[in-house]
Description:
Blueprint: H1 2-87
Amino acid sequence: MQRLRKEESTVRYSKRDEEGNRITEEVTQQQAQVEELCRNIRQLREENEYLQYLIEKCRCSSERSKISLLIRATCCGEESSLSKWQDN
């Protein structure tokens, strides 16, 4: 009877150890997944910041181009006006 109890307790401890090992392995895998997700988030943030920088740079360039076109149009308009005055 006592021998049977020892075997039962050994089996229980063995099952607990297996369950503990399984849980530990799952936790380790989940920690690795969390670390990978954090790296991905960090990389996406860096890419987002770079894209925002490029967008701002393009916006400024576009504004400069518009101003330049306005200046050219104004200059061309003034030249046309001057040539009309000179023709008269």
